[in-house]
Amino acid sequence: MLLDFTEKGIYCAQAGVYIDPWKPVDKALITHGHADHSRWGHKHYLCTLQAAPVIQHRLGKIDVTPVDFGETLTIQGVKISFHPAGHIIGSAQVRLEYKGEVWVVSGDYKLEDDGITEPFEPVRCNTFITESTFGLPVYNWKPQQEVFKEINQWWRANKEEGKTTILTGYALGKAQRIIQNLDETIGTIYTHGAIENVNEVIRGQGIALKSTVRVTQDISKELYPGSIVIATPSSVGSSWIKKFAPFSIGSASGWMNLRGARRRRSVDRGFVLSDHADWNGLNTAIEECGAERVFVTHGYTSVFSQWLNEKGIKAGQVETQFEGELAEIGESAEKEEDPA
Amino acid sequence: MKQFAELFTKLDQTTKTLDKVRALVEYFKVADDQDKLWTIALLSHRRPKRSVNSTLVKQWAAEFGQVPFWLFEESYHVVGDLAETIALILPDPSATSNHSLAYWVDFIRSLSDLEDEVKKKKMKEAWSALQSNERFVFNKLLTGGFRMGVSQKLMTRALAQYTGLDENLLAHRLMGNWSPGSTTFHDLVLSKDVKADDSKPYPFYLAYALEDEPQALGDPKDWIAERKWDGIRGQIIVRNGEIYTWSRGEELVTDKYPEYWILKDKLAHGTVLDGEILPFKDGRPLAFNILQTRIGRKNLSKSILQNSPVVFIAYDLLEYNGEDIRSWPMHERRAQLGQIVRQVNTQVLHLSEQVEFDTWETLGREREKSREHHSEGIMLKHVDSTYRSGRKKGDWWKWKVDPLTVDAVMIYAMRGHGRRANLYTDYTFAVWNEDQLVPFTKAYSGLTDEEIREVDRFVKKNTLERFGPVRSVTPELVFEIAFEGINRSSRHKSGVALRFPRIKRWRKDKPKEEANTIDDLLAMLKKYG
Ligand SMILES: [Zn+2]
Ligand SMILES: [Zn+2]
User: How do residues A118-157 score in pLDDT, each as one tens digit?
Assistant: First the structure.
């Protein structure tokens, strides 16, 4: 096989590179800047030009080679290129070709154009390694216009009641997607510091993100009612949000598709908005890449691979080979770094 | 149905009482009378009976959603709610409909007499015409698990605001033996001449659990103490020569307790007693599960009546000589009640005895003896308290005895639901029988999120065998299990069944060898069972 599943991560022995490895290696191809994909400690990093600034911002001084989307590198006969995954700005699927055999590693992806991320492009291949965060038929997203219509309506209603609107989303990706789709004529968009730091990096790479104001001590509390504050998920229930009272707080995530999750989240409103492919998205992506073999990682691996096998697509779950490691990743899905 | 589904969504989106009441009032303003009546019925535990077998519903939904049955089941396991799973899995609706809530409830009820194939066809038509939140509500009604996150009390409050009527008056009007088929919104709610419904009970007054020390209640002289009996809360009504027995779930259970029928001749017209339906034999209460053996029965055989007879332990008097006396102070109601019980003078009617005490310390010692009396603790009632409706803080308190505990070893773990579907959250515990571990209970709750993650890691690393969502694990972790009571059970391998088991804490300090034994459990059974 061109790629192997090792305990350090997905490995291409021919080229001597790992993809999103979770233990330190010499050469790492990184699909995107989320913490469960780009880890600290590798000797050399390769990622897209568009993902590099954020990865450097997160990991500090690293040795990184930025590569443009669609540009081909050849390492020991293996042709390597990055293609848009539509997940967050700069996120890529990695294509590897050797002696006519093509593998694509999806990283995280979604099919819907979110208005700020380079839209997903299907890449033909023989073997596709797909994520399956939402690999169950109960996960199907509404078009984002509908969701943002609800969000903007909620903001407007809160404004009428003299309340501040607080919406939480992960600092990298979700937050910028939200900001870009808000109706800024309603009021000011404030941001949590962790989000504004990412915003600065993104504006620095020439992307025209809507204007936002960092929440600081100096801002008078009277200014918040009527405006919206984009906060990190860890803000829910923290003392940081007290200064925005009276407020209504919401959360934007794919998990909000389930009523139980909405209720446990202890927020007023849950909006179903994910940067991962939904059930139909996963199935469409697999169809369009034309792969005859699929490996399933990152999510409902066993269920989704069984489904594919029954449909006649040869599929295996990566989990079986080193469940311990993947269990750890699964857990990080509970934590802040891995956005859903 | 749109309005009702919207109401449901609004109620679901907020945890604030005020917002819920507001949403209900808004709904009452726009809904037509028949829908209002059904909404009141649904929110007062008058749900339609299940008319379709849920396995069939699953199969149809899977088929219609074009997923294999196993995948439907996997999804259901993750979502944790059948109605929601179906709503999420079905394809987008192909039509719209403007039918009312009442229409859909009738539709569901009409299914019960149909052939399965016809049911299936009708179900598909219904699903195709309902939007996603309507579908969810429809499925909830269909599968019988309908809950709206609104208590009957809140609904009554909203109805009071909407109609301008007094809340307590309404609460009383909504009780008793009605169904949307037997009355109208106008007759039930608005009509002043309450139809002589002799069976109508009063709303029960419920006590809060005492969390602080009883000293905080002040002078012991202001309080009446009674044993808290482990039976079923009930109301006995005698009016116009008839007797009606109600249980707390607002269920008319007159037929289930023939022991009480003699009271219809012994109690005067217009008498309503509040008390406990308690299994009782040879001068002492029996365990609660004895009562359970007769609850589910349609026919009460002679042997059941002989083996699990009940008495009524009266502790309050709500109606006397046809007059509602709930506003009398407790001590006066009690005195009158005592007189009635003495006059009636029969084996089936007892006065709930007062536990005498001068100081809270004396009462504390009495509480320690609760289990010996087959009681759950002590009830405290303020001598001057009126009989209120629902759960209101301040006048009535239950001071429960501390739970029983054992240390047990975890031997199986099962995956959780919803967001926790990737975590092992439900465990089975065992105690020692010589060198064997015998499973005796499951428990779900009690650990912090952090601890659950830690146990989950342990489960994944120490799996011995897998059976679907369940794994057996290396016996190693010890937990303290708390429970309210223990009974003999032939259905359990261990021979015992616990009441309300939960995890009290993780005993990281205990090696598995030091967990309790089956003999310890049997000793508890002997003492308290
Ligand atoms: Zn990601
Ligand atoms: Zn990820």
Answer: 999 999 999 999 999 999 999 999 999 999 999 999 999 9
Residue B351 CB neighbour total at 10 angstroms: 18
pLDDT confidence tier of residue A325, bands split at 50, 70 and 90: very low
B424 has pLDDT over 50: yes
Domains of chain B as residue ranges with CATH:
2-143 (1.10.3260.10), 205-400 (3.30.470.30), 404-528 (2.40.50.140)
Q: Which CATH number does the domain housing residue A236 bear?
A: 3.40.50.10890
Q: ipTM of this model?
A: 0.91
- Shortest distance between the Cα of A52 and any Cα of chain B, in A, equals 32
pLDDT digits (tens, 9 = 90+) for A194-209: 999 999 999 999 999 9
Question: Is the distance from CB of B455 to CB of B477 less than 8 angstroms?
Answer: yes
Q: The domain containing residue A165 runs over which residues?
A: 144-271
Buried b (16+ CB within 10 A) or exposed e, A51-69: bbbbbbbbbeebebebbee
Q: Which two tokens stand for residue A6?
A: 């090792």
Calpha distance A294→A280 (Å, rounded): 16
**CB distance from B17 to chain A under 8 Å?**
no
**A141 inside 8 A of chain B by CB:** no
Cα of A25 to ligand 2 centre, how many Å? 19
- Predicted TM-score (pTM) of the model is 0.70
CA R_g for chain B: 26
| CB pair distance less than 8 Å for B417 and A260 | yes
Which parts of chain A are beta strand (E)?
Answer: 4-6, 9-12, 17-19, 27-29, 44-48, 64-67, 72-75, 78-84, 92-98, 101-105, 127-132, 164-168, 189-191, 213-214, 228-231, 247-252, 269-271, 293-299, 314-317
Instruction: Determine the distance in angstroms separating the CA of B158 from the nearest CA of chain A, rounded to an integer.
Output: 21
* Structure-token match 């909830």, residue found: B140
Long-range contacts of A280-283 (CB under 8 A, 24+ apart): A280/A140, A281/A110, A281/A111, A281/A112, A281/A141, A282/A130, A282/A132, A282/A134, A282/A135
The confidence band for A57, taking pLDDT boundaries of 50, 70 and 90, is: very high
